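Supplementary material to the annual report.
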Amino acid sequence: MTARWGGGISSLDQTSKRTYIDSVPPSPAPQPFAKRPGVALHHQIKEDLFHKLRSGEWPPGAEMPSEHILCTHYGVSRGTLRRALADLVSDGYVERHSGRGTFVCRPKLVSGVTSAYSRSSVVGPAVDPGGRVLLCRRVKADRHVAAMLQSRGAVWQLERVRFTDGQAIGLQTSFIPVVLCPDLAKQDLQSKHLVDLMRDIYGVHFGSAVEYLDPGIADSHVARHLGIRVNALVFRIERTAYTVDGRAAEYRNAVLRGDMYRYRIELR
Amino acid sequence: MTARWGGGISSLDQTSKRTYIDSVPPSPAPQPFAKRPGVALHHQIKEDLFHKLRSGEWPPGAEMPSEHILCTHYGVSRGTLRRALADLVSDGYVERHSGRGTFVCRPKLVSGVTSAYSRSSVVGPAVDPGGRVLLCRRVKADRHVAAMLQSRGAVWQLERVRFTDGQAIGLQTSFIPVVLCPDLAKQDLQSKHLVDLMRDIYGVHFGSAVEYLDPGIADSHVARHLGIRVNALVFRIERTAYTVDGRAAEYRNAVLRGDMYRYRIELR
DNA sequence: GAGTGGTCTAGACCACGTT
DNA sequence: ACGTGGTCTAGACCACTCA
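Predicted assembly:
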C-alpha cells in the first residue's frame, strides 16, 4: 500500500457545509479551505488539490483520498469535485483507475532525449503568405510522393521561396494531388497561403499535419535563393498535411534558415 | 449571422425520448441516432457530433444548435450532452462562448512554418540511463548559466556521453545548482538517469522542461566522442528543466546525432 | 461485499450577450 | 426579456477491484 493521506482534512467536514462562521479554532488548526466568491468552486478545489500535490503533501505515486472523503472535506457535491479531479487528470497530474482509486502521477520527464509528449512551436518572425514561385507544374507522383499522399495520380509540384518582411527565410517544394485542385497553377500562389487558397477555391479544409525535423545544410540551390552561404545550417522539414476528413492533401519538403528560426518544445 | 443548422435533427425531438419504435418514415429520413449499448452515451454523442463536423454538415465558423436542442435531439440530460461538448472543446474542434453559443472552430493550421501548438516527440532508439562521465566538477555559474538557472551560486558541471545499446548517440553538458545536490559527484552517474537520481537521493522532483532545438554540425570534440565525422549533422538542444514547484534545476546543452534521431511534430 | 471511480438524470440558479 | 452557456446539487445505477 502506498502512502495514505496524513491528515489535515479530517479537521473540517461532516458538519454543516458552507459555514463561514468564525468559531475561533482552539488549536492552530491548518487553514482548511475558504471558498472565495466569484471563482468557480471546482476551480478553487483544483487549485487547492494542486497545491497539496506540488507541496509534497501527497508525494508521487501516493493514493489520494476517495471522492467521498474529498466531497465531505470540501463540502461540495460529487459532480463539482469530479470536475476538479477531471481537470487535474487532463493536466496530467493525477491518474484515476476505476475500482482502485486516484493516484498522484510520477513525473514522466525522462532524463534522456526520448521524452513524453509535449507542445512545440516555432520561434521566429512570422512568415508572409505566398512567396516567389520557382516552379509549378503537373508531374506524375514518384514512388515516395505517392506513398506519402496515399495516391498514385498526377500531382502539382510547387516550389516556392518563403519570405518574412522581404527577406527569404525558407524554400519549399509541395506536392498536391491534382484531383483536389484542377487548376492550381492559375491561382494566386504569390501572395496567398496555400491553406487559404485550397479552402476558399477548392473547399479543401486542412485539419492536421505531421512534420519530421532534421538538421541540414544549405546546398548551392538553397543558398542562392535564401541568400546564405553554402553549408549554412538549416532545418529540413518533411511534412504531410491532411484534410479534416483524414485524406493526405499535401506532401512538402522544406528548408528553413537555422540562424533565424528555432524550435521550442515544452515538456511536461 | 453565420450559417445555422440546415436540418436533419428536427426530424426527431420534442416527442418521447428513447423511442426506438419503427414508425416507418414516410420520407427517406436520415438515420437519427441509435444508441449502442456498452459505450458511454457522452462518447457516442461526441462521435456523432464529430462526424457532423468533419462531414461538413456544420462548416467551420458555423453556430451549432444550442444545448437544449441537442439534448432533446439525442434524448439525454444536459450533463451528458455537456460532457460530449466539453470533450470536443478540449480537442479543439468547437468553441463555446457564454451567452452567445457554440461554434465550429476554423482550422488553425497555418500554411507557413509558424503554426499552432502541437505535440512532439523524438523518433529513434531509446537512450540508456547514465553514460560515460567525461567531467563532473564544481564551478561558479557563468552569466548565461546563472540566468538560465535563476541563481548565482555554485553549480555542478556534468558532461556525459549518452548511449543506446552500446553506441554513442549524444553528448551533453548539464549544469545543476550545488545546493540541490551537495555531493552529486559521489553518485552513480554512470548508470542512472539524472532525474531518478535527483529524485531518489535529493528529493528533487522534475516537473517540466523547455527545449530549444537548432541544427548543428559536429566539432572535433563531439565527433571523437560520438564516433562520427567532423561536420556531421547533429541536433543542438538547449534545455532547462524545472522542479514541480517551478524552480530551475538543470540547464543543459546537448548534441544528438542527426542521422539516428529526428523530431516528429504533430500539428492540429 | 464493501469501496472505488464511471455514468447519467432532473432539477436549480447564475452571468453573460443579444434584442 | 430572453436564450445562451457555466455552475452546482442530490440523488441513482453500474462495472470494476480487492480483501
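The mean pLDDT of chain A is 82.
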